Amino acid sequence: MQNRWDDAELVEPGALAECVYGSRLLGSEPTLVLHGGGNTSVKARVRDVTGDEVEVLHVKGSGWDLATIEARGFAPLRLDRLRAVLQVPELSDAAMMNEFRCALLDSSAPDPSVEALLHAHLPFTAVQHSHADVIVTLTNVADGAASVRAAFGDDVLVVPYCMPGFDLARLVARTWDEQYRPGMVGMVLLNHGLFTVGDSTRQAYERHIDLITRAEEFLSARVPAAPSGHPLPDVPALELATLRAKISELAGQPMIVTRRTDPRTAGFVARPDLGSLATRGPATPDHVIRTKRVPLVGTDVDAFATDYRAYFDANSGRRGVPLTMLDPAPRVVLDPRLGMLTAGRRGKDADIARDIYLHTMDVIEGAEALGGYRALPPEDLFDVEYWELEQAKLRLAGAPPAMAGKVAFVTGAASGIGRACASALLAAGASVVGVDLSESVVGTFSGPEWLGLQLDVTDADATATAIRGGVERFGGLDVLVVAAGIFPASAPIAELDADAWRRTMAVNVDSVASLFSAAHPLLALAPGGGRVVVIASKNVPAPGPGAAAYSASKAALTQLSRVAALEWAGDGIRVNLVHPDAVFDTALWTPELIAERAARYGMSVDEYKRRNLLHTQVTSADVGALTVALCGPAFVATTGAQIPIDGGSDRVI
Fold first, then answer.
1. Closest by alpha carbon to 79, among 41, 51, 128, 114?
2. Same domain membership, residue 172 and residue 69
3. How far apart are CA 547 and CA 543, in angstroms?
4. Contact (Cβ atoms closer than 8 angstroms) between residue 130 and residue 210
5. In this structure, what DSSP letter does residue 491 have?
6. Residue 177 falls within a domain, yes or no?
């Protein structure tokens, strides 16, 4: 592994700034640290408010990611207090965390890492800790200690597995005091990871990279290249959505399910011993929170749930307190035909499970080549899965957004009302597939909850392909928002352009009929019921002269949607329409056009924008908010409704 330390990149002086820099280097290597794992620290002397010099441990705060951590992400703790706490014979982890809060120099600092006592005891200025793939590969075998010594000799201390927390800190302190010898640069905690120490963060980091490189070389001489298969073919989108519906039912909430079919994944799921290898447990116990103890091999979700309940029943007495079982739905599914599916409350969570298991595949196959992959026994994993401190980490995120786990498909999502609808859905927690004729739709939004696809909605095959892409990315379809539409140039019926008429009908009506046909089977599987919101127009109840093609197409779209509401109610699908008017923050309305129309009415631009009964300006964001509301619980008993959003129009009323 490359040593990427560069003094020129250190923008601030001081031990903490150096620790921030070294932590980011460590955290940016996914083979070392994944999604918030690992921790680092540095000891320093500071003056408190009294002017006294205090020895402080700056340790990574809970909830911070090493790859992006800042100075405020480190919790400053009085070192003498930590060392005193470590002398207590017994202490619950909750009491330990309380002691940490009491030892802080800054009450606004984040909760310190649960391994703060361990860092405090090590008699070096800096400590760096990772869950490196190569280290857990060495340790997840029958005799992990022997593997570590074969790779590193006497350069590291080997500590047996112990659950993180107070007991681990006491074990490390005792082992270090008894076995440390000059020249040792760190320690390996079996089934857990690597700690390196140094008189500075730079030294601890460089020792970390050196040991990782030695482990890589050790394994490369003994582990063959991972098998690679051919990318897996498509499977019916309805099959994926059905599986997602079952997972969501067991989870008790809608779940995002992402499919991966690349050659590396295909090679792993094709192994004849997949059922044995994959069900031995995770590479490190920290992963159990994201991936469950084992993946589902195959697609029998009910059997997985039965096994999970038995696992809970067999171990629920270990904590000594009443426990509530977590949901029994799998988070990782491995199948020779489907590839790898990962599930999570949101797309981000499904992606975390995916990333973790991609690294787990390498660990499993590497350890198997060393003599046989062996994870921790179920009871040890249960202790971590139901550990109060790990559960607290998940609670820190708070309640999920209202539409978390829901998958929305929005047409016309690159601009105007369609973009506003997509934005509102994302803000409400939904995962959104946005399509548009403009190529800008790909980057209209970013992040794991967005998939932007360029297409012409009149191309039924392209639309079906986009729906399928959304199912591959997010698992199904819950919400359909029809916002794509065109408004041809105004013309009286006597001068109607036949091509413009046909194009308007093709975009505003025909494409939606095809979209409805393709979307219905997936909407029928939506956890909690499907939702459709159609952006129609004020021109349906109140058409205007010169807009025959637009008004007729929106009227036809309205009738199509009403029929859908009639036909789909039995499947639990709600279909509602909104009729916007005078939404001026869209591409349809240029400043010049607004000024021209205002002058025609003898009004100022502001007066023209508010020429409705409520004298209010209607925005695309207002339409987006109404769209989200129609998908929510307030309209649970509403379908087939047509709701104006126009500030009040005497013609409509």
1. 41
2. yes
3. 7
4. no
5. B
6. yes
Say if pTM beats, i.e. exceeds, 0.90: yes
Residue 55: beta bridge partners?
A: 45
Here the contacts of 76-80 (C-beta below 8 Å, separation 24 or greater) are: 76/46, 76/104, 76/105, 76/106, 76/109, 77/103, 77/104, 77/105, 77/112, 77/116, 77/120, 78/54, 78/103, 78/104, 78/105, 79/43, 79/54, 79/55, 79/120, 80/55
Segment 639-652, tens digit of pLDDT: 999 999 999 999 99
How far is it, in rounded angstroms, from Cα 123 to Cα 43?
10
The pLDDT of 185-199, averaged and rounded, is 97
Does the pLDDT of residue 391 top 80, yes or no? no
Q: Which residues contact 117 (CB under 8 A, 6 or more apart)?
A: 82, 85, 86, 96, 166, 169, 173
Q: How confident is the model at residue 588 (pLDDT cuts 50, 70, 90)?
A: confident
d(CA 219, CA 129): 20
Res 397: pLDDT: 64
Tell me which residue has tokens 């599916």: 341
Strand partners for 159: 189
| Rounded Cα–Cα distance for residues 631 and 533 (Å) | 8
Q: Which domain holds residue 288?
A: 237-396
Catalytic residues: 550
Per the domain annotation, does 229 fall within a domain? no
- For residue 479, what are the β-bridge partners? 408, 531
CB burial of residue 92 (10 Å; 0-12, 13-18, 19+): exposed
Question: Residue 396 has what pLDDT?
Answer: 66
Asked if residues 184 and 154 have their Cβ atoms less than 8 Å apart, the reply is: yes
Mean pLDDT of 392-403: 76
Sort strands 531-535 and 479-482 into parallel, antiparallel or unpaired. parallel
Q: Give kind and range of the element (H or E) at residue 169.
A: helix 166-179
Location of structure tokens 């997936």? 522
**Which whole number is the average pLDDT over 274-297?**
96
293: domain CATH number is 3.40.225
